[in-house]
Amino acid sequence: MKFFSYIMVYRRFLLVVLTVLVLLPLPIVLHTKETECAYILFVVAIFWLTEALPLSVTALLPSLMFPMLGIMPSKKVASAYFKDFHLLLIGVICLATSIEKWNLHKRIALKMVMIVGVNPAWLTLGFMSSTAFLSMWLSNTSTAAMAMPIAEAVAQQIINAEAEVEATQMTYFNGSTNHGLEIDESVNGHETNERKEKTKPVPGCNNDTGKISSKVELEKNSGMGTKYRTKKGHMICKLMCLCIAYSSTIGGLTTITGTSTNLIFAEYFNTRYPDCRCLNFGSWFTFSFPAALIILLLSWIWLQWLFLGFNFKETFKCGKTKTVQQKACAEVIKQEYQKLGPIRYQEIVTLVLFILMALLWFSRDPGFVPGWSALFSEYPGFATDSTVALLIGLLFFLIPAKRLTKTTPTGEIVAFDYSPLITWKEFQSFMPWDIAILVGGGFALADGCEESGLSNWIANKLSPLGSLPVWLIILISSLMVTSLTEVASNPATITLLLPILSPLAEAIHVNPLYILIPSTLCTSFAFLLPVANPPNAIVFSYGHLKVIDMVKAGLGVNIVGVAVVMLGIYTWIVPMFDLYTYPSWAPAMSNETMP
Prior knowledge:
Blueprint: H1 2-9, H2 11-22, H3 25-30, H4 33-50, H5 55-59, H6 61-68, H7 74-79, H8 84-101, H9 104-116, H10 120-135, H11 140-174, H12 194-199, H13 207-224, H14 231-251, H15 260-272, H16 281-307, H17 312-315, H18 324-339, H19 345-364, H20 385-398, E1 400-407, E2 413-420, H21 424-430, H22 433-452, H23 454-462, H24 470-484, H25 490-507, H26 512-522, H27 534-540, H28 547-569, H29 573-577
Antiparallel strand pairs: 1-2
Helix pairs in contact: 4-22, 6-22, 8-20, 9-10, 9-11, 9-18, 10-11, 10-14, 10-16, 11-14, 11-18, 11-27, 14-16, 14-27, 15-25, 16-28, 19-20, 22-25, 23-25, 24-26, 25-26, 26-28
């Protein structure tokens, strides 16, 4: 037993050593460039899937192993680690930093929830819509981290409203108030951990009152064996959690900058097929927005039916009197919004720059009319989406946010400098350097596959798949990606599979977008497990969900997502990119590799 305990303690170290040694005969025995590159690919893939080393550390392995095995010189490998993608990411993070610093994201989310109302079904749709909208521009993780405390406060207010109704009824029958059922106003604050809320004294009361209320509440919970008054209250908490987690992922599908997987695909595609100028911010939004909208609405219906039941008559009934719970929800949302105060100058400037960035992205090369990039016709293709992102990003460091003052020896307060919308230190705290390195490692790996000839070898071996129907190949690749991304990180999954799927499309003489677009979208469908992506982990940490809850709900959303992507690729996406025709910008395969 002691031996096995040592193995468990040092399992990651052993996995790294054994992987390197067990696969070592591959390059030694065969000793070709293809097998040497395959050896590196297998090692990196195993480390990414098992996370034996941190993902970004594993991503640095190509820069070490490619020069050592003579596949690529060190200078050429190093150039793959910083691309146009990284400039785009820097500009987007500048925007995200300012939005979160000045609480613009919270104002947008609360306002959208206030607009849709407090009916439970519409309330969850409001949370899903606002969260999805924010995740189009912010990272999925930060969006979920921002929205979840608000949703938690609303869910607790619903549960406490039920307690208030019961307390009123008991007062009416018994002639006294049960203090154990009083509403704990601490949910209106920033405390989001339910266990802390139960033991936190009520603001405005002395400590003894808070202790008595907490004691009675704990006794009540222990007597019932649960921290929820009713099953419906528990279901509402589960529903709120999953709505936030799934919508923060679904919203990221709609823009190239919405998720790291979209950015990785765009950079890889534009690098491998430089003559194709069909993929930009506007074209991506045009085909992905309908898909994301349909997935969001169907997921809302599915989650609503799974946890609360979906009554169409009640949901769409107009003029219905609000219940006590609904009034309580409206009040807590209103109070949270009022805490933000009137909109400030910094928020207005951030919002203007946010809108300006989106408009410049859309109008750069919309496709149906000439965009502003036509003004630089002498340098076609020079200005990209990263140009816009950097231009707006630099403005965040330039535009004044507030004056900095100091007190002179005479006691006079004078301004000596100004503080911009964001500082470099704040930007650094938001910048995901690990993702930047991970993506760079993926690009280096793809370049190595090209240089060594491994991509062509894979294409030759995959050419027999051309006998299968194209829809079946797309479905198989989509399901494979969806399954893999549940146990591996999304960026690692897409980085690993792009160098395989592109040669596959070329080998069977199919437009690469036909296979790459569905696979890229499906990479984000990590809905089954708490560890599948950060939003899932964030909502799971609140303690309302069990793994089986997430598996049941996530399986339905996964099926919906893959079905909608398959529908889209055969309807509105086909005419946009002429998917039925093998494009001139893709490599012309030899007869041996053509089906």
